[in-house]
Amino acid sequence: MRSRAGDGRLLRGAVLGVVIAGILLPILAGFWETSRASFGLLPAIGASEVSLAPWRELAEMPGLATSLRLTLVTGVGATLLSLLLAIGFCAAVHGRLSQRAGGRILTPFLAAPHAAMAIGLAFLLSPSGWIARAFAPVLGWDRPPMLATVNDPWGGALILGLMVKEVPFLLLVILSALSQLPVRAHLTAGRSLGYGRGIVWIKVIMPQVWPLIRLPVMVVLAYALSAVDMALILGPSNPPTLAVMLLRLFSDPDLSRILPASAGALLQGALVALAFAALFALERLVRAAGLWWLRRGGRGVTAEPGLRLATWFTGALMALGALAMASLLLWSLAWRWPWPALLPESWSLRAWSTPGSGWGAALATTVILAAGSTAAALALAIAWLEGEDRAGMRRGGWASALIYLPLLVPQIAFLYGLNVAFLRLGVSGDLAAVVWAHTLFVFPYVMIALSDPWRALDRRLLRAAGSLGAGPWRRLFAVKLPILLTPILTAAAIGVAVSVAQYLPTLFIGAGRVASLTTEAVTLSSSSDRRITGVYATLQAGLPFLAYAAAFAIPAFMHRNRRALTSEGIA
Amino acid sequence: MLRTALLSLAAALAASPTLADWPETLEAARGQTVYWNAWGGDARTNAFIAWVGEETEERFGVSVQHVRLTDTAEAVTRVLSERAAGRDEDGSVDLIWINGPNFLSMKEQDLLFGPFVSDLPNAEYLDLAPDAAASLDFTVPVDGMESPWRLARFVFAYDSARIDSPPKTMADFPDWAAANPGRFTHPAPSNFMGATFLKQALVELAPDPARLLEPTDEAAFAAQTEPLWAWYDALRPHLWRGGETFPENESVQQQLLNDGEVDIAMSFDPASTAAMIAQGLLPESARVFVPAGGSIGNVSFVAIPYNAANAEGAQVVANFLLDPAVQARMQNIEVMGSFSVLDPARLDEEARAAFDALPTAPALPTLEALGPTLPEPHPSWMTRLTEEWARRYTK
């Protein structure tokens, strides 16, 4: 027994070492280089004097105040609205929608990368877009209406775009949290006491769900406050959100702009930290107020209309998302599709028939990046979980924080600095370096997806295997991994989706040499040819979808004669 | 004395390497892969670069990897971060399609390889006199640090099915926009094309256009741009979306023209409208116009960073781009439609015939229709113009 715990400790130590060296250190190094540059230290451009000048220059940037306000409004707004809709929708449909069925409906939305979704939405919503075209004959528009429906100065289109992606994510997270609670019993008890369905949700169920979804909500908040690709495509441009402004500064012909850009990158980090602090303050406030409200015991007004509204809006969001993806596919098959035609005037396969024009190579690169980073992340996650098992230890809060860290820190705050650090090591622009950078962000998701099923594994099977003489490694490879095939493949599919969606890590660490479907799609989104953009975006969305399909089909085939292991057996 | 004379002779010889070096360059270049960093927003240019790579691979064993940029400054930043990290050789950028301010920035920071242009055998087809178009990039002397490859001219495009008479001069734009509210815009001035639009107006409206060829200063900037801001204040309220937001670049604006959201687009390539029609990206009725007094023009160049890993291969590619047959192919409207940078007077019969035989199209303007080429202002004007615009209109 002692040697087994020792073995576990060794494995655990090794995994922790890899995670610290491979994930924590790069983030710290990136922050370090960014901070140095923000205080005037970037020897490459002859900046070698410590000063506050970069911060002053940042403060004097035209439109910075508007830009900060926009960032907060879009980031916080999108997160709050998404959370409200997701909770309302869950409250309304829970019981009618199992976690599995929900997962299946939500998968396409989770799989579609942000950039592809944004490109589709930009066409759908624009004044000359699909929706306007549908109304044109009715309203007698001979020219597109003069409405700012995308890139609007208020950031409305950006909020909507973020919501289309984040609501499904939060729905899935909430559904998974609910599966751990006796919701039905609570509802029955609550209703028998005369509380309405919505009120039971708010008073009884949400306080229990919240601790389980707090971290994912923070991930959404950090993302929404610092998203680059979606903000580039859907957000306002004069001024843009802070992250886009920083991207522009980082790539300004005047090289000294990298200094204020670095200061801005730290400001972006501070903004996210501030939002987290506000979230915690709000949590305490709601807890205190909620307790008083609970004790008061009022049966309250009915929340049903609110729930119906949430269901409605969520349905509308999903319809928008689906139409956006459909419009990408249509554009890739169109030749001419002028205003106000509802469907292309003429069709062509030309955009698809020339993989040599670039999409072939980008597809190959994307597949390599996704496969490499997902494999690395899976191996690391399995080693971590196995180490926990063998050492017989529960995961501490610090370990969870370590896993979530790359998702909570805004990418732009450390990626440029990380690139400088990578350059020093001579690995920038390498495919391997980009795989590593992707793994930073793939690992947390894989870990999150795999942890619960891993812990839910029936321990009796392992004890049985052990009593038959199987050692720890044999138990891992012959029992655990085969049984966990479905969750492992699901985690892999999530990993692929996360990797395919990465924009900034590919751009910065790849030094522009590594062209993935995502970087190309974002570049093309500012070109004049929607048909080619359509090809890239369709491929970009199709790849994760294929991965999910494989995650569904492979276990079904492998376990076709093991009823207890088919997906019906394991939820 | 003799020693000094010999030394200076040796220095002179070293400073102007003869063409005898070229076979060595070709030899060293064989097997290299040139990472050509070039703006990737134009499908025809992308296809042309791919073709160049196939040809140089076959003829010289030099393959080309097109690194597609959204903005040329990305490549400059990359070279810079490499120097930051002490990567002074074996850099990741071999060749950059570059324009005025980025060139000036790299030249000032000593980030360029060269001079190399006079070593290229095909440089014999260029007019390299000190004041020739190929010797100045935005009034900044090229000094052999970048090699020309395509000619750019500022033009407007419009849909003749929607509007009959586009504005005749830059001064006419505010009236036209007032009569057609929301139907005109320009790319954001942080973008090259948006800045060029402002410069075109500046060149026409400045009290003393000749002053624009010198570096700017506070007093000159205030005096020369005053009419410009008055003009712009009259124009802006009538722009698309009330002049609150702007398309990111000319491609996005061209898409707006195609979508019918605006009536006018702009380009730095007189042939682009005809080419876009052929590609199904603009309606058949799209046409080109230039302001009556002519428009800004410049030459696009390729430059090699100081730390390029494949500098020899990059020179082979730069030289190949100047081959008369390649330039004629580039000017072909069915291929790319960019005007050639070669000096017609230096071409032989055969090469001239190749240019004369190029196909034409209804939306392709003739050289005469384009009018005179106006010189680019000194880059410091563009930088100040962009900053001042942001200060005034980004709230």
From TrEMBL, chain A:
Membrane topology summary: Multi-pass membrane protein
GO biological process terms on file: transmembrane transport
Residues spanning the membrane: 12-32, 70-93, 105-125, 154-178, 212-235, 255-282, 309-337, 357-385, 397-419, 431-450, 483-504, 535-557
Tree of life domain: Bacteria
InterPro entries per record: MetI-like, MetI-like_sf
Gene3D superfamilies: MetI-like
GO cellular component: plasma membrane
Short name of any one Pfam family annotated for the protein: BPD_transp_1
Keyword annotations: Cell membrane, Membrane, Transmembrane, Transmembrane helix, Transport
ABC transmembrane type-1 domain span: 64-280, 363-554
Localization terms from the record: Cell membrane
Family the UniProt entry places it in: Belongs to the binding-protein-dependent transport system permease family.
Name of the protein in its database record: Putative thiamine transport system permease protein
TrEMBL record, chain B:
Pfam families reported for this sequence: SBP_bac_8
Keywords, ordered alphabetically: Signal
Signal peptide span: 1-20
Identification of the protein by name: Putative thiamine transport system substrate-binding protein
Source organism (scientific name): Tropicimonas sediminicola
Lineage: Bacteria, Pseudomonadati, Pseudomonadota, Alphaproteobacteria, Rhodobacterales
